[in-house]
Write a structure and sequence with these properties.
The complex is a heterodimer of chains A (150) and B (423). Chain A is mainly β. Chain A has a five-stranded antiparallel beta sheet with strand order 1-2-3-7-6, with no helix packed on it. A four-stranded antiparallel beta sheet of chain A has the order 5-4-8-9, with no helix packed on it. Chain B is mainly α and 423 residues long. Chain B is 41% helix and 0% strand. Chain B contains 16 helices and no strands. The chains are: A mainly beta (150), B mainly alpha (423). The interface between A and B is large, with 33 and 38 residues.
């Protein structure tokens, strides 16, 4: 081979090796990427702005593979506690396309806008969303919390 | 002249680049783990295993006398229709409490694989489909199943009265008086055998209840014994222990570079810890991984059948034979009972000692670990429901490294040796 060919071969090898080291470590493929600046606040406003809700998990940090309870506090956006709400819970992992492993329920109205949520459980780490569908006084709205479990 | 100098410089740079590349790819270096990865490794480490959770549904779960009685019952082949099948027939201590067969073989051939019992007490659900929610309720299933032990609860109650009276009564109080064979037939139970079933239906309700209570207590003693079956440390655990102690030499002597590469894949690109997480390498939840159907067997929908069954089970946490108060039954009360995710979903067994537990999956569909890994790599859809898997695109070398890592999860049992032998 002449030197020119050797040179071109070395250049090609250089480019290929650069590509290989850059892409070889490829991470897991996901259905939905984690949003940049994921809001994991424990106080969030509902989708249509009717309620402001706060979650207080009974365990901190939230454990994996252990059923536990949360307290959910619901108030209007001007700070008035929402009593007598009907609340359902759902959620899941957007990246994996599956729901919650249990069916959590609000089992007690604790008064002052506080509700006991039982049956919370997470069986893997990662990005979870938990939705509370809240109906009170003829109105309904949904609050979503993001969790990044480790 | 300039062109020639530039060309020489370029060639020199390329040669240096190739040398650096060769070094990076070929020279084995101690891998560095990020803080997040170290947290994951710590969570998988046997040192992170919490104490045995209490079983509020079983009042004798941690009573040493129940362990002793359960040990005897576990190995007693008289607890069967032909006097030849004990729990240990399929849950063989020498084989990590399973039988190495694709399908269990009791009186007849089962439709599913025998599961290991090592570390089983940490799971909230039992069987591949979770149709039982306590270890004691699980033990009662095979005892009356026509293809497993093939017996019935009246037969077992008479056996306890004849051979285990003292041990039983020390734990559970006086046995009922079973001497009247008209009221308490030798063979009776809500089982498939027509004669035993007819005899059961002919019994007084209070007598059926008394016999059932003895049957339940047999399960509770067996469960107390099974709670003691625990995994011991593997080379993976030695590696993590050394890592956490900053002991590089200990790390190098615990795992080979290929095993470490496999571990890196396990917690990374291969996404195994979605389901195989925690110190027992299982989240004990239900997942559809597209496992192929087993030839000649009926369609198996897994948890979609198991969830309604556990809710209806008279021996569940909320039932009359459970010692638990209703507040203790959260897993059952908030069970996910329906939804398409349950269809074809099965509970992942622990991966500790997985290399010694071929064949794999709920009907032993894969003969080798390599076949399992190739299945995960391809992620072909299964016969029912929606697989959670996506193709991994791992190379042959990476699959071999993953397999090497899985083999490093083998270790002895952390159980008193006398419990691993017949009493």
């Amino acid at each position: 081979m002449d030197r020119r060919r050797v040179l071109l071969l070395l250049i090609a090898l250089l480019i290929l090796s650069a590509l290989a080291t850059a892409c070889g470590s490829g991470g897991p493929r996901h259905m939905t990427p984690v949003p940049a600046n994921l809001d994991t606040s424990t106080t969030r406003t509902s989708d249509q702005g009717l309620y402001r809700a706060t979650i207080i998990p009974s365990l901190d940090p939230i454990p994996i593979n252990q059923v536990h309870t949360w307290t959910l506090h619901v108030e209007t956006t001007d700070g008035k506690a929402v009593d007598q709400a009907e609340i359902t819970v759902d959620g899941g992992m957007p990246q994996h396309g599956h729901g919650l492993p249990t069916q959590p329920q609000v089992t007690k109205n604790l008064g002052n806008g506080n509700y006991l949520v039982e049956g919370m459980k997470f069986q893997m780490t990662g990005w979870w969303v938990v939705h509370f569908n809240i109906s009170a006084g003829g109105q309904s709205d949904r609050v979503t919390f993001n969790l990044m479990l480790k | 002249m300039v062109a020639k100098a530039v060309r020489s410089a370029l060639i020199a740079a390329l040669v240096i680049d190739l040398a650096v590349l060769a070094y990076l790819l070929l020279w084995p270096r101690a891998p560095r783990w990020t803080e997040g990865e170290i947290a994951t490794l710590r969570s998988l480490w046997l040192g992170s295993l919490p104490p045995l959770p209490p079983d509020p549904s079983n009042g004798v779960a941690d009573d040493p006398r129940a362990v002793a009685l359960g040990h005897k019952l576990f190995f007693d082949a008289r607890l069967s229709s032909n006097g030849q099948v004990s729990c240990a027939t399929c849950h063989q201590p020498a084989r990590l409490f399973q039988d190495g067969l694709p399908l269990g073989q009791g009186i007849g051939t089962m439709t599913r694989r025998t599961m290991t019992l090592v570390g089983v007490a940490y799971s909230p659900w039992f069987f591949w489909d979770g149709r039982k929610d306590s270890l004691w309720a699980q033990a009662l299933g095979p005892l009356e199943h026509p293809l497993e032990h093939g017996g019935n609860r009246a037969q077992y109650a008479h056996l306890v009265a004849r051979h285990y009276r003292a041990e039983y009564e020390a734990l559970f109080g006086p046995l009922p008086d079973l001497s009247d064979r008209a009221r308490f037939p030798a063979s009776a139970g809500p089982v498939a055998d027509p004669a035993a079933r007819a005899a059961w239906e002919g019994m007084r309700p209070e007598d059926r209840e008394a016999v059932t209570r003895v049957f339940v207590n047999i399960g509770k003693a067996i469960a107390a014994y099974e709670r003691r079956l625990m995994p011991g440390p593997s080379r993976f655990d030695a590696y993590v222990q050394a890592l956490l102690a900053g002991d590089a030499k200990g790390m190098r002597s615990a795992l080979t570079p290929d095993e470490i590469a496999g571990l890196r894949l396990f917690i990374g690109k291969a996404e195994c810890t979605h389901c195989h997480n925690g110190p027992l390498f299982t989240n004990n939840d239900f997942h559809n991984t597209g496992v192929p159907a087993a030839a000649g067997l009926p369609m198996d929908i897994g948890r979609a059948a198991g969830a309604p069954q556990v809710l209806a089970d008279e021996f569940n946490c909320l039932g009359p034979y459970s010692d638990a108060g209703p507040d203790a039954c959260a897993d059952l009360r908030f069970l996910k009972a329906s939804g398409k995710e349950l269809v074809g979903a099965f509970k992942p067994p622990t991966l500790r000692n997985v290399a010694e537990r071929a064949p794999y999956m709920h009907a032993g569909q894969f003969a080798t670990l390599r076949e399992v890994l190739e299945h995960y790599n391809r992620a072909a859809p299964g016969p029912v429901g929606q697989t959670e898997l996506l193709p991994l695109n791992l190379s042959r070398r990476e699959l071999a490294q993953l397999e090497a890592f899985l083999r490093s999860l083998s270790g002895p049992l952390n159980t008193p040796p006398e419990l691993l032998r017949p009493p």
